[in-house]
Amino acid sequence: MENLTMRASPLLNQRIMEHLNTGVLLLDAELIIIHMNPSAEALLEVSGKRGVGTHFFELAVEDQSDVDAMRDAVITGHSYTKREAHIHLQNQQTLTLDYSVSPVTHPETRTPTLLVELQGRDRLMRISREEQLIAKQETTRSLVRGLAHEIKNPLGGIRGAAQLLERELPSAELKEYTNIIIEEADRLRDLVDRLLGPRNIPKQEPVNIHEVLERICQLVDVESRGQVVIHRDYDPSIPEIEADKGQLIQALLNIGRNAMQAMLENPDQQERPSLTIRTRSVRQFTIGHHRHRLVAQVEIIDNGPGIPAGIRDNLFYPMVSGRAEGSGLGLSISQSIINQINGIIEFTSVPHRTVFSIFLPLESL
């Protein structure tokens, strides 16, 4: 039988290049882009028609040392790789990626060129952060449950003993002390209950996310006495979410209320306090280990002072707060509620712009 050999044709090579997940660019000796595949267009957020003929570092701004390194690669013919490079795009966004530079000879013109391979790191880093956050939340919940059990048992005994002692005391003046014991025991019990979060089993039902958000807007407007300007930017195409409506309101209200209080209590607030609530649908989004076909993204954005750098890594832990009057329980409870419906809360914060992003799957696992 005659052996049949498949030979790579220019068309086949082009098809392979178009379907690679790795961004691939070809630069000439002056670092001008002469070819880019669709993955490179997506990473650099520019069309091939606009990108070809443009200097690479006009689309992906780096330090002068990185420009010099590429020019040296053309001269010396040495390949190199840079890990977790922070690239500034033309739309003012920052991108983290790994890239490899390999000097090659152009197959047609025989001139020196550079083959640049781009691998986006932002998505992988975000997934890694989410997995760590989910693991931390599970550990925290287990710790709090165990701690609550150890605290509530002796509290019940203290309260009961104080009640028995109160009956035996001869004067009303002395009973004031037992009342203090009982009231403080009740206060500690309530604090432990709040640490544990909602105790009712979630009642899953179809929920319109925009009805929930309108409720949040009403409550924030009333509590702020109209001092906070609320902007809405809704995507009406988002379908209903399977969730406990009451708990979802509580989770989102905790975030909105925190933002409101941070703005109103900020002595350096120059602009009028502003809260923007935005919804979008996101396709093929990964939360932890699971990839979801469709996810609802809710963003709650404020122009307050920002979250202090010292508490950002632990913001979702119980008793962590950036406000002097804050209990530090609201965000921990919110994250717990959102985790129960397989979602997650993330945030970014700089002065005058803090964004909490809530991702809610729109299909069951």
Automatic annotation (TrEMBL):
PROSITE patterns per the UniProt record, alphabetical: HIS_KIN
Reactions this protein catalyses: ATP + protein L-histidine = ADP + protein N-phospho-L-histidine
Xref: InterPro entries: HATPase_C_sf, HATPase_dom, His_kinase_dom, HisK_dim/P_dom, HisK_dim/P_sf, PAS, PAS-like_dom_sf, PAS_fold
Signal peptide: none
Keyword terms, alphabetized: ATP-binding, Hydrolase, Kinase, Nitrogen fixation, Nucleotide-binding, Phosphoprotein, Transferase, Two-component regulatory system
Histidine kinase domain segment(s): 146-364
Entry's EC annotation: 2.7.13.3
One Pfam family hit: HisKA
Protein role: Member of the two-component regulatory system NtrB/NtrC, which controls expression of the nitrogen-regulated (ntr) genes in response to nitrogen limitation. Under conditions of nitrogen limitation, NtrB autophosphorylates and transfers the phosphoryl group to NtrC. In the presence of nitrogen, acts as a phosphatase that dephosphorylates and inactivates NtrC.
Protein name per UniProt: Sensory histidine kinase/phosphatase NtrB
Taxonomic path: Bacteria, Pseudomonadati, Pseudomonadota, Gammaproteobacteria, Oceanospirillales
